[in-house]
Design brief:
heterodimer, A: mainly beta, seven-stranded mixed β-sheet, four-stranded antiparallel β-sheet, B: mainly beta, six-stranded mixed β-sheet, 12 strands
Amino acid sequence: EPEVTQTPSHQVTQMGQEVILRCVPISNHLYFYWYRQILGQKVEFLVSFYNNEISEKSEIFDDQFSVERPDGSNFTLKIRSTKLEDSAMYFCASSEGDDTQYFGPGTRLTVL
Amino acid sequence: AQSVSQHNHHVILSEAASLELGCNYSYGGTVNLFWYVQYPGQHLQLLLKYFSGDPLVKGIKGFEAEFIKSKFSFNLRKPSVQWSDTAEYFCAVNALDGNKLVFGAGTILRVKS
């Protein structure tokens, strides 16, 4: 069964550094998403992406964040200058278009 | 703004007990409703979903959920839990005017063998 994959599984970085989290969505899916879950809190929507552009974003997704689909298979989330409060589990998801989103295993980002 | 409430954060049951996890949402428009499960060390997996039609939906592993529109509820049920159902369960809502899922806080279920 096709799955969403994410790399790395765990990323440790220093405050102020740039990080790129990578995702490979399910191959025939057209919609891509990033969510995050800060420890002890709810899973929160960050951004959705369709047809090579952002279709929706939350208030969390400020100028420090960007997304890209650099080729036909990868979908990336970049955080330009990480803050301590960016420490969280980041989940990528994809959907074919019928609103059922399939999630990857997550990347745990730790900002020191 | 949409929100989703899950009534119990931790539930402990013995094997063969019946399960009901509550989920209520606040949104006045049409929604799609989901339950996701996260087994220990694994990623979020779709358990079941409701888009339209019969408000009683059946999912994988013997789970079912009932959409009650008048109560804005989508409670998850299983008549007889197994030790392997130990996991965290998330209710989520998608308003049809957007793509995003809004999640509840999750319910951690522990089934004692």
